[in-house]
């Protein structure tokens, strides 16, 4: 993972990260996007859902072994643009009429319903970029040249003994690390 912010002298705030084309990479894309939107002071919904669907599609349908997918977020004017680039340019997403019994096929319909605009940009080969734009309210747009600071995680709560079997251990408070006991 190689997240980066574009330098503050750029015209619009931007976040870009390369992730593995796996279910874990798709989940991480949603989590990183959520934290970045929170840091910019932008609403999380429906952007987090759009990122989740596009990243899941890149990990599921755009997967090529050994090649990552890229998540790019940028806020320009009153819009948030979400771009997910993968290396399967030969497979473009399609809107499907999924039936009630179908277990898949609703992802791009969800993106189309939540986004104001969406589309696909081909190339350079073998890549394709699936993008979606969401309108932001004028008072919520991030300032293009000023960094926004704030909490990026939930407050620390001490661990309890009632941990679910598949639950990860809690994160330590900022500035501290877990012991290796």
Main sheet: strands, sense, barrel: 6 strands, antiparallel
Number of strands: 6
SS field, number of helical segments: 3
Proportion of helical residues: 10-25%
- What is the beta-strand fraction? 15-25%
- Strand arrangement within the widest β-sheet reads 1-2-3-4-6-5
Structural class: alpha+beta
Catalogue the unreliable spans: 143-159
SSE pattern:
EEHHEEHEE
Radius of gyration: 18 Å
Shape: globular
Please tell me the overall pLDDT: 79
Distance between the termini: 27 Å
Description:
This protein has three helices and six strands; from the N terminus they run ββααββαββ. The chain has 181 residues and is of the alpha+beta class. The two termini are 27 Å apart. The relative contact order is 0.16.
Write a short abstract of this structure.
With 181 residues, this protein is α+β, with helices and mostly antiparallel strands. It is built from 3 helices and 6 strands, in the order ββααββαββ. The longest helix has 18 residues, at 23-40.
Describe the secondary-structure layout.
Elements: E1 4-5, E2 14-19, H1 23-40, H2 47-60, E3 69-76, E4 79-86, H3 107-114, E5 117-122, E6 128-135
Antiparallel strand pairs: 1-2, 2-3, 3-4, 4-6, 5-6
Helix pairs in contact: 1-2, 2-3
Question: Key terms for this structure?
Answer:
six-stranded antiparallel beta sheet; single chain; 181 residues; alpha+beta
